């Protein structure tokens, strides 16, 4: 029983981490694109 609860807690943690990374990825991608366009000029 404890193993199942532990599994769900870990799964929820990784799910939240994945959502967090997806939210972070968009601004980071925009910053990288801006840096690349500036470095070309």
TrEMBL record:
Superkingdom, taxonomy of origin: Bacteria
Protein name per its UniProtKB record: Uncharacterized protein
Phylogenetic lineage: Bacteria, Pseudomonadati, Bacteroidota, Flavobacteriia, Flavobacteriales
């Amino acid at each position: 029983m404890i193993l199942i609860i532990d599994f769900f807690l870990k799964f929820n943690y990784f799910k939240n981490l994945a959502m967090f990374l997806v939210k972070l990825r968009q601004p980071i991608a925009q910053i990288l694109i801006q840096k690349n366009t500036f470095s070309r000029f």
